[in-house]
């Protein structure tokens, strides 16, 4: 299992609460909110892993140091769980490919990801800043501020004009939802968007790496099948 050491459930709730300087009832609340996902013993006792402890310390940082409200923390932790799950999926896929190589699976080619080598249309930069601002009902200066904060990453034309993609528009609408509907402060939004960008980058890297590995494996298997048979030698 990927990261088995960090994911091993070992701490009962009283010890976990002491490690992160929180009340056990707070840990139960965070579990109900889906912010942490402790394991269970055979007797249904909550058991927390090192990863859970890291999550709890991050929650404390967000709430106490950055003043992020619970709605913002929920989004941050949801993205963090997605990142960790994606990393686990990547490691599991690498293990699966290694197993296929060891077993010399060459009867049929491995399927390549459907998006291999393609650019997602949502990432195509098409909107100038005035149009993008109108689409999300914001002032262009607000979009420039969000770019400086790293919340969005618009492209540039050959003349250095900002060009926004559909994904940028989605991000801006999400930012507006967090700030206006959920009351998340800017520090919380920065954390959310940092993780969202990291997740999207990791997903793209995941597809690229798996595609490259599959292609390399296919080429190796093709080469292996086309090798001439070994020549028999006559013994005197």
UniProtKB/TrEMBL annotation:
Keywords: Coiled coil, DNA-binding. PROSITE patterns: HTH_MERR_2. Gene3D superfamilies: 1.10.1660.10. It comes from the Bacteria. One of its GO terms (molecular function) is DNA binding. InterPro entries: DNA-bd_dom_put_sf, MerR-type_HTH_dom, MerR_fam. SMART domains: HTH_MERR (SM00422). Residues 76-103 form a coiled coil. Pfam families: MerR_1 (PF13411). Residues 10-79, 126-195 form the HTH merR-type domain. PANTHER family: HTH-TYPE TRANSCRIPTIONAL REGULATOR YFMP, REDOX-CYCLING DRUG-SENSING TRANSCRIPTIONAL ACTIVATOR SOXR. This is MerR family transcriptional regulator.
